From TrEMBL:
It comes from the Bacteria. SMART domains: HTH_ARAC. This is AraC family transcriptional regulator. The keyword DNA-binding applies. Residues 200-298 form the HTH araC/xylS-type domain. InterPro entries: AraC_XylS_family_regulators, Homeodomain-like_sf, HTH_AraC, HTH_AraC-typ_CS, Tscrpt_reg_AraC-type_HTH. SUPFAM superfamilies: Homeodomain-like. Keywords: DNA-binding, Transcription, Transcription regulation. It holds the Pfam family HTH_18.
Amino acid sequence: MGDKDTHHRLIQGSHVFERLNQARAVLHNSVSLGEQLGFARWSNQDDRTSYHRPEHHTLSVYLSGGYQTKRLIGSELLSGGAPGKLCLMPAGHESRWQVDGDLAFVHLYFSDQDLSQSIEQIWDKSASSFDVQDLTFADDIAVSGLIQQWLLKLNWQDNADRLALDQLSQLLLGHITKHYLNKHLPEPAVNGGLAPYQLNRCQEFIEAHLADKLSLHQLAQLVDLSDYHFARMFKQSSGVSPHQYLSQRRIERAKHLLLNGGLSLAEVAYQTGFSSQAHFSARFKQITGNSPASFRNKS
């Protein structure tokens, strides 16, 4: 369980975050990715809470429980909560919630500006006069899959996973702009991959900064592309996402250091961009099938 005051500082100005922070909900993790963009993972039990015209949008995805969670609309109780269900709460909305039993969920907080940037990046057009749909207990396999199979497996506090968190937030924002706005947007045009010199520039930059905190925006700026188009074009050219490529290169550097550097595992972790030996060891085993210690001993 995380400390509320520590996490509170990570997502400033979020009305929904503040309301939950003051209620009985337990904050387990959070990360800020922009001025009003960030993730938070919560659990709650037998609680009542309400949101009054927040200045930001909130995507909520249920992880477990929620069967007895209800939304109060006037005098009507709307039920249907369950693992995998999502709720979308637009800026300026008002809602009251009755949580009976256990509930675990993830929130993505985002602003009009985040959505506008997503529209501009994906469709290359100025974004204006759009409204976000108000959804309660909806089904969306794509969103729940991204949360369960990707977001929850990342270490939100480790610089090594910052690139993946950036990419995931952009995927979710792109999905919302395509499916949950009041205006219809056509399928975005499919672009080709990066030019060879652009791919080389990005790969050389990554190689020189394996120990650093790298963001999707940093890499996209190297070749004057939006974050969204860069991620798609990099994958078309390299066969893997920017995050996957970065992880592979960090593990290859780690293998070299384990065999030739005479460094401790903690030093290898530090020099390959991981904030802790534990996270480095877990990721190394996930990718190679061996722990760093056993890899060193076998080689």
